[in-house]
Write a structure and sequence with these properties.
single chain; about 150 residues; 4-stranded antiparallel beta sheet
Length: about 150
Protein backbone atom coordinates (compact mmCIF):
# COMPACT_ATOMS: atom_id res chain seq x y z
CA UNK A 1 0.00 0.00 0.00
CA UNK A 2 2.82 2.39 0.87
CA UNK A 3 4.51 1.76 -2.50
CA UNK A 4 1.22 2.42 -4.31
CA UNK A 5 0.74 5.70 -2.41
CA UNK A 6 4.26 6.80 -3.31
CA UNK A 7 3.70 5.84 -6.96
CA UNK A 8 0.43 7.77 -7.16
CA UNK A 9 1.91 10.83 -5.44
CA UNK A 10 4.93 10.75 -7.76
CA UNK A 11 2.60 10.52 -10.76
CA UNK A 12 0.46 13.42 -9.62
CA UNK A 13 3.44 15.65 -8.73
CA UNK A 14 5.12 14.91 -12.08
CA UNK A 15 1.84 15.79 -13.76
CA UNK A 16 1.96 19.20 -12.12
CA UNK A 17 5.52 19.76 -13.37
CA UNK A 18 5.20 18.29 -16.87
CA UNK A 19 1.76 19.60 -17.79
CA UNK A 20 1.69 20.74 -21.39
CA UNK A 21 -0.79 21.44 -24.18
CA UNK A 22 -3.86 19.28 -23.90
CA UNK A 23 -3.56 19.11 -20.13
CA UNK A 24 -5.58 20.77 -17.40
CA UNK A 25 -4.10 20.66 -13.91
CA UNK A 26 -5.81 22.12 -10.87
CA UNK A 27 -5.53 21.84 -7.11
CA UNK A 28 -7.40 23.43 -4.27
CA UNK A 29 -9.08 23.11 -0.94
CA UNK A 30 -12.16 20.97 -0.49
CA UNK A 31 -14.39 19.57 2.19
CA UNK A 32 -16.26 16.42 1.27
CA UNK A 33 -19.50 15.81 3.12
CA UNK A 34 -21.95 12.94 3.30
CA UNK A 35 -24.79 13.90 1.00
CA UNK A 36 -27.20 12.59 -1.58
CA UNK A 37 -26.98 13.53 -5.25
CA UNK A 38 -29.41 16.45 -5.04
CA UNK A 39 -28.09 18.07 -1.86
CA UNK A 40 -26.25 20.82 -3.75
CA UNK A 41 -25.33 22.74 -0.60
CA UNK A 42 -23.10 19.87 0.53
CA UNK A 43 -21.29 19.15 -2.75
CA UNK A 44 -17.63 20.02 -3.33
CA UNK A 45 -17.60 21.37 -6.90
CA UNK A 46 -14.37 21.00 -8.87
CA UNK A 47 -14.61 22.68 -12.29
CA UNK A 48 -11.88 22.19 -14.90
CA UNK A 49 -12.18 23.84 -18.28
CA UNK A 50 -10.17 24.86 -21.32
CA UNK A 51 -11.15 25.64 -24.91
CA UNK A 52 -11.63 21.92 -25.70
CA UNK A 53 -13.41 20.33 -22.74
CA UNK A 54 -15.07 20.98 -19.41
CA UNK A 55 -15.22 18.51 -16.53
CA UNK A 56 -17.33 19.32 -13.48
CA UNK A 57 -16.93 17.03 -10.49
CA UNK A 58 -19.75 17.27 -7.90
CA UNK A 59 -18.04 15.41 -5.08
CA UNK A 60 -19.78 13.91 -2.06
CA UNK A 61 -19.56 10.85 0.18
CA UNK A 62 -22.26 8.23 0.48
CA UNK A 63 -23.07 4.59 1.08
CA UNK A 64 -23.12 2.55 -2.14
CA UNK A 65 -24.35 -1.02 -1.85
CA UNK A 66 -23.05 -1.25 1.70
CA UNK A 67 -19.69 0.41 1.04
CA UNK A 68 -18.73 3.94 2.07
CA UNK A 69 -17.37 5.75 -1.01
CA UNK A 70 -16.53 9.15 -2.42
CA UNK A 71 -18.81 9.84 -5.40
CA UNK A 72 -16.62 11.75 -7.87
CA UNK A 73 -17.97 11.07 -11.35
CA UNK A 74 -17.64 14.20 -13.50
CA UNK A 75 -20.00 15.61 -16.08
CA UNK A 76 -17.93 16.06 -19.23
CA UNK A 77 -18.63 18.39 -22.17
CA UNK A 78 -16.77 18.54 -25.48
CA UNK A 79 -16.48 22.26 -26.28
CA UNK A 80 -14.49 21.76 -29.49
CA UNK A 81 -15.62 20.99 -33.02
CA UNK A 82 -13.65 17.71 -33.22
CA UNK A 83 -13.85 14.43 -31.29
CA UNK A 84 -11.65 14.27 -28.17
CA UNK A 85 -10.29 11.59 -25.88
CA UNK A 86 -9.79 12.50 -22.23
CA UNK A 87 -8.23 10.76 -19.26
CA UNK A 88 -8.46 12.16 -15.76
CA UNK A 89 -6.90 11.58 -12.35
CA UNK A 90 -8.33 13.04 -9.15
CA UNK A 91 -6.73 12.66 -5.72
CA UNK A 92 -7.83 13.78 -2.26
CA UNK A 93 -5.29 14.65 0.44
CA UNK A 94 -5.00 15.38 4.16
CA UNK A 95 -3.41 18.48 5.71
CA UNK A 96 0.07 16.91 5.40
CA UNK A 97 -0.37 16.09 1.71
CA UNK A 98 -0.96 12.39 2.38
CA UNK A 99 -3.16 10.69 -0.18
CA UNK A 100 -6.52 9.59 1.28
CA UNK A 101 -8.34 8.49 -1.89
CA UNK A 102 -8.02 8.74 -5.67
CA UNK A 103 -9.85 7.85 -8.84
CA UNK A 104 -9.29 7.93 -12.59
CA UNK A 105 -11.10 7.18 -15.80
CA UNK A 106 -11.15 8.03 -19.51
CA UNK A 107 -13.69 8.68 -22.22
CA UNK A 108 -14.11 9.25 -25.93
CA UNK A 109 -16.08 12.41 -26.64
CA UNK A 110 -18.01 13.03 -29.82
CA UNK A 111 -18.62 16.52 -31.18
CA UNK A 112 -21.51 18.01 -29.22
CA UNK A 113 -21.31 15.65 -26.22
CA UNK A 114 -22.66 17.47 -23.14
CA UNK A 115 -22.78 16.42 -19.50
CA UNK A 116 -21.50 12.96 -20.37
CA UNK A 117 -20.45 10.70 -17.47
CA UNK A 118 -17.70 8.08 -17.45
CA UNK A 119 -19.36 5.71 -15.01
CA UNK A 120 -18.01 4.75 -11.65
CA UNK A 121 -15.48 7.08 -10.08
CA UNK A 122 -16.18 5.98 -6.54
CA UNK A 123 -13.10 5.22 -4.47
CA UNK A 124 -13.81 3.40 -1.24
CA UNK A 125 -12.83 5.18 1.96
CA UNK A 126 -13.11 4.65 5.69
CA UNK A 127 -15.83 6.86 7.10
CA UNK A 128 -13.32 7.98 9.76
CA UNK A 129 -10.96 9.27 7.03
CA UNK A 130 -13.51 11.51 5.32
CA UNK A 131 -12.99 14.44 7.70
CA UNK A 132 -9.24 14.35 7.11
CA UNK A 133 -9.60 15.40 3.46
CA UNK A 134 -8.72 19.07 2.99
CA UNK A 135 -7.51 19.33 -0.61
CA UNK A 136 -7.57 17.82 -4.08
CA UNK A 137 -5.33 17.61 -7.13
CA UNK A 138 -6.71 16.90 -10.58
CA UNK A 139 -5.09 16.26 -13.95
CA UNK A 140 -6.97 15.91 -17.21
CA UNK A 141 -5.22 14.83 -20.41
CA UNK A 142 -6.85 15.70 -23.74
CA UNK A 143 -5.98 14.27 -27.14
CA UNK A 144 -7.74 14.09 -30.48
CA UNK A 145 -10.41 11.44 -30.51
CA UNK A 146 -11.44 8.95 -33.13
CA UNK A 147 -12.84 10.48 -36.29
CA UNK A 148 -16.59 10.05 -36.55
Amino acid sequence: MKKMTILILTFMVSTMVLAGPGTIVKSGKCTIQEADAFDEGKLCIIDLKNSDVQLVFSVRASEFFGNFVIMASPKITNLSDVPKHIAYNLGFFDINGKLIACTSSNADLKVGDKNMQTGSSMPGILRSSLGKIVSYQAAIYITEGKKE
